[in-house]
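Handout, page 2. Input:
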Amino acid sequence: MADLQAAAKRVARFREVMAQRGYDAVVLRHNPDLRWLTDAERVFDFEQAHTAFITQDELFMHTDSRYYNTFLERLGADSPWKFDQEVATPTEWVAAHIAEARARVVAIEDTVDLAFFDGLEQALRDRSVAALLPRMHGDIAELRIVKDPAEIELMKHAQSITDKAFLHICEYIKPGLTEQQIRAELENYMLSNGADALSFDSIIASGPNGANPHAQPGERVVQTGDMIVMDYGAGYLDYHSDMTRTVVVGAPSEEQQHVFDVVRKANETCAAAIHAGVTGSDIHNLAVKVISEAGYGEYFGHGLGHGVGVEIHERPFFNPRWNKVIAAGSVVTDEPGIYLPGKFGIRLEDFGVVTEDGYDVFTQSTHDLVSVGC
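Output:
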């Protein structure tokens, strides 16, 4: 059941933004934003099937019969949201609400598709209604940066499943298995042990494939001496975990151990430096400094980290472009890597919440290089 008090606080924060911007109403269709505002668990899926119309006094949602009863069950009779199912097309429904509310400045979330925006303009013309339709650029994404205690507990729980899955998969891996077989075992374990979804399609990249940071698992057969990059996470009540561990099949070579130690140093150095008030670029550049000083700077090309919440990648970021201050309550990953083309890749990723004086890491899996398949 949704936490109506938490949802009410989120709506109130958003309405403050609406007032500051001079919006009479806002139209939303982005599922993660709707999940955050309503606190309706496990309703929003891969389809953009819902449209919200929000004023300072009312909360309306257009949905269809596939979701209507689930919304009522999740939110209960005391919910302030008023639902309409399939009474009209979403654009006609919004136009009717704009006309009824006599709204003159109606912000449209910039994640809507062009067909919806064009359809809304046409529906307003058909009704002879004039309204300004400014694009709203990430206002809710900014509000979602600072997590409340309930959100943090959901992600900690998701990570506890992810940590258990790591112990399991280390016992399972052996030479002769394919990347796909390892992926299937890992994902099945999470879904059979408390996860209600996957955070994303798991990355299992062995040997040379590990040098591609977002390699997709395939039919490559794991061999003794391979490094295996495993980037995966459990989903729980629409919130995510995100972890990467790199293991070695058998004993590591001297080079493999050395590169692993550099990546571990970068991860732990950055974790020790994270606290409220630093900028994302400062922390990213610290990882670059550690890796570059070891001689591998050209082999670390991605950002150090990203926010996690109802989306697996959300604000804020540890990257060279994020010059904003990181706020306490932000949940962010710390994932340096080194990728040597034709040889192997290594990434070590944790995630946790930024506090006033540090970084509370949710991830409990070891930072040691684990040998598997022995």
